[in-house]
Amino acid sequence: MAGQREEMAGQREEMAGQREEMAGQREKAMRSQVGKARLKAALIKSTAAQLREANERLVVATVRAQTMADAAEQTTVQMAYMAEHDFLTGLPNRALLSDRLAQSITLARRYGKKVALMYLDIDHFKHINDSLGHAVGDRLLQSVAKRLQACIRLSDTVSRQGGDEFVVLLTEVEDAQSAILSAEKLIEAMAHPCLVNGHRLHATLSIGISLYPDDGKDAEAIIRNADTAMYQAKKSGRNKYMMFTPTMNDRAVTRQSIEQALHRALEKQEFVLHYQPKVSLDTGTITGAEALIRWQRPRHRLVSPKQFVSIAEECGLILPIGKWVLHEACRQAQDWLQAGLDLGQIAVNVSPMEFHGKNFLSGVREILNDTGLDPRHLELELTESGLMQDSEQTAATLLALKHLGVQIAVDDFGTGYSSLSYLRNFRIDTLKIDKSFVQDIDGDAGEAIVRAIIAMGMSLKQRVVAEGIETQHQLAFLQSHNCKEGQGYYWGRPVPAEEFATLLAGKTFKC
Ligand SMILES: Nc1nc2c(ncn2[C@@H]2O[C@H](COP(=O)(O)O[C@H]3[C@@H](O)[C@H](n4cnc5c(=O)[nH]c(N)nc54)O[C@@H]3COP(=O)(O)O)[C@@H](O)[C@H]2O)c(=O)[nH]1
């Protein structure tokens, strides 16, 4: 029994050992399972984190891509807008206008309708820009743009062509009269001054109108003819509209042929100078001569400067022509002086474009050196509008001329679009009373203006020369008001150099 008990206890022990061993194995297995599970969990966690991170990156990238796509689209829209609109005024530009005009013409052709095109230019805009600065000029353009837009229907177009030029397209008009009504509305819209940076600016418009199909069969002809009509509106006094007429084109063709002929005239030396005396109203002696250009055009009569100087100014040919005039006048004056003739001063007309050209001053110096003329014998005649441009540069050029010893005269005094402050700022030697005032001496207004200019010149210690004296009555009036010098047909028209030499040599004029 005891043996049996021992054996049973042994068996129990063995079983317990086996149980322990099994428990140990189970624990080991469990630990290993837990370890694996933990590992798996860690793996899952890290994978999830990686996925999350990747997903976030993907989201960020997607958002970025979308933002870039939006920005690209916005830029494309902006660029398309900018390509078709004017930056300063926001109006359709030349390209968009051409497009709309072409479309309107196509529709008008199909439905038998009319289209009107108005070419607009702000009168004297350059003066405003030059005297008050570009910032004021820009604001004025914006203000004009708004007024124009307020006058037209939504289906019509106001565009800015550049500078101070605008084009208005009226897509459906019954006849010329409806276009004229619109032009009158635009002119009326400018009747009140524009307030810009404290300035009250009176901007007026010159408008040229052409109609499809009456004045042209395609967009190009319609624009060109409206531009031609606008040019005529400017020439005939500004602040008005003009309908295109075919004779305007004849004038444009004539202008074109004069321009071409002027090139040849320069090459072939077809220009000559005539001289008109300036006369002392006290003694009748010659105090100087004004050099005036004429054109000996082959197979034509002597051509007056009125017929070609403005064309030469528009196409830039006035620069070489003006240089020739200055050289020839100085050469001739020096010849007379060397021949012992008492010339006084030779006066030469200078166009604003020449005066403001970058080589003007050096050109004057060069010509004086070349001809040997003492600068004191040279007087340059400038118009008020020429003096009003770019006042700093003008002051510097005038000062340099004064240092050289050259005299400065204001031509056509009283007719310019200017303020009188330049008389204080620039040292002007001579005021030339415009002939329109002298010829108006018989009327009260003319007399008052002439008296005022003489008085102003005297108090500013300037010489005053009355231009365009034709009658004894005008002469007597000027003498009685102490005007010291004059010029005009009363003594004679401008004459060629040889005739002028005879005048210089001999005679004293009656006065
Ligand atoms: N830039 C340049 N302009 C020039 C030059 N030469 C002339 N001109 C300008 O052309 C305009 C016309 O000149 P012109 O036909 O020579 O007429 C001048 C005189 O003949 C005329 N005049 C003179 N006296 C009288 C008169 O008693 N009555 C009358 N009706 N006309 C008269 O006036 C013109 C001179 O004018 P101004 O120069 O304003 O003193 C004219 O604008 C010229 O300036 C040139 O070389 N360069």
Automatic annotation (TrEMBL):
Q: Which CDD domains match?
A: EAL (cd01948), GGDEF (cd01949)
Q: Which Gene3D superfamilies does its entry note?
A: 3.30.70.270, EAL domain
Q: Name one GO biological process term.
A: cellular response to nitric oxide
Q: Which residues form the GGDEF domain?
A: 113-246
Instruction: Please list where the region (Disordered) is annotated.
Output: 1-29
- Signal peptide feature range: none
Report the source organism.
Answer: Oryzomonas japonica
**What PANTHER family would the database entry show?**
BIOFILM ARCHITECTURE MAINTENANCE PROTEIN MBAA (PTHR44757:SF2), DIGUANYLATE CYCLASE DGCP (PTHR44757)
Name of the protein: EAL domain-containing protein
Coiled coil region boundaries: none
